[in-house]
# Entry
Amino acid sequence: MALLDIKELHATIDEDDGAKAILKGIDLTIRPGEVHAVMGPNGAGKSTLSNVIAGRPGYTVTQGSVTYDGADLLEMEADERARAGLFLAFQYPVEIPGVATATFLKTAINARRKAAGEPEIEALDFLKLMKSTSKRLGVPEDMLKRPVNVGFSGGEKKRVEVLQMAMLEPRLCVLDETDSGLDIDALKVVADGVNALRAPDRGMLVITHYQRLLDYIVPDVVHVLADGRIVKTGDKTLAQELEAKGYAEFTGAAA
# Structure
């Protein structure tokens, strides 16, 4: 059974002068164990796709369906989706002043456990898990005491997001241009953390503008998104083709 099954998805974004159509018929299926990449020019609808999957406010689905692990994802609130094992890594992670990163992680883990009918994690078990995971991912312990993302560099924010993913163990990871603003060293650290999470029962959707991320997170399937539609699908060599030729032929085809 598919982990994520999107059929004929149309969606609009709410703007001051009315709704603007962004997604114009997306079909996409991710099975457990697969890593899919979505590439495309600016304004193609890549971030809108990730936001609609995550249930972010400000978007309206006007047609189509999204099924996650056999359930109607569109009928679930954003927090329900997260508790059900969906994780969105933001292009620009938000700051949460006054909430320590460790406290945030523990609260999120317990919310997932409660949804699964499990008891809250013991304090000692949480500390052991956090320390071992942060060490494996190269996240300094002092960062865990600081408020979530406050004063963090771009690379530090992305590292902490990977730490969140590793500790929450989601079924579906959606990475929205997680390579944005990263230098090559930070990119490698983030990619190593993501690759460590690849598993037979987990799916990933990697959204990116550039091919360089896919040198480190090698996808099983690559999709080209242009003007709200997937206009071509292939293997990892498609990403290399896009890097060499750009998106001109696809934007022309989508127009």
Q: What stands out?
A: The chain has a mean pLDDT of 89. Residues 32 and 201 are 5 Å apart (CA to CA).
